[in-house]
Amino acid sequence: MAMITVSRASISRSLPNFFPNRLSSSSNRNSAPKKNKLLCYADSSHTKTIRSEVSFCIGTHMIPHPKKVERGGEDSFFVSDYNGGVIAVADGVSGYETLHNWAERNIDPSLFPQELMANASCLVGDEEVSYDPQILIRKAHAATSAVGSATVIVAMLEANGKLKIANVGDCGLRVIRGDQVIFSTSPQEHYFDCPYQLSSEMAGQTYLDAVVCGLYSIISFLSSELVVYHILEKVSRVEVMEGDTIVMGSDGLFDNVFDHEIVSIVAGHSDVTEAAKALANLASIHSMNSEFESPYSLEARSKGFDVPFWKKILGMKLTGKTYKDGFIFLNARSDQVLCLAGGKLDDITVIVGQVVKSQHISLLAEDQTVEAHTEQETKLES
Q1: pTM for this one?
Q2: To which protein family does this belong (predicted)?
């Protein structure tokens, strides 16, 4: 089973991968297209059955937060060719680092999502996982010992076209068919900009999580593990078909790029690696534009975080920073609520998976079954 695990992005990077179902994922991008090759033959005593199967053609790209380039950011992901394909993203939460001087204690917030994804990549074929994304997340979480926390999303494509998605927090996924988004995940949050997350099982970790998001959330965090695992039980299932495109990413993508922009970029790039790179670059550009009306800023205003009307008349705009370089939310009077217009600086991870077709051929004899696979002609542009 071939797979790739990426933990950090010291520089922006792209990883092209083609994963035909049940075939090796090690493709030479510069090689000539492979011709269909029948691995066994049938005679008149056999009945040939051909059924279509699907898998992923995957492209990825990562851009770390401008202030975290040296250490590569705090996002992590993995992709696997198991069954129809598995893709996953984990976004390390760095609020603890700022509030509790993790740097002084030599604690790296990128290690938790890195280990979480490494464990998930090793467990993807485990019998107990049984190709269930929520079980995979649970088992990977239980095996993770690093200090920290992360939001996470996992999507598993079955060869019959069923896509199963489980997530905790605000990493997201879109399924695009033609010029429409036919499915999207929703952020799972205690309240705006305070996502549910998986954390290490060290004493006090749950409490620290509550402190990052505010005193209001301490009560809900007292049962956070039960809440998170209840969320994990809600696995989404989507029927996909050849030609559909799946876009997965950390909140650094979806906080800065609208769905219609995602659809447009996917439509404009036939190569999945180039599409992933274009999406990440657009998110990065928007994140640094203080005038851009981002999905994040619009959502904040819809939740009541905005500059008072009388100050808008005077042309005033209050700005500030939180631990994520975004909004400041304070327990203050209504005329003191701060709002930061523009995009949101963050680590950005993008995975683009195009659903492609392969064929599974079963040759049925009276006393035996012989299986063969054909690989469609595939060309990965360099």
Answers
A1: 0.73
A2: Belongs to the PP2C family.
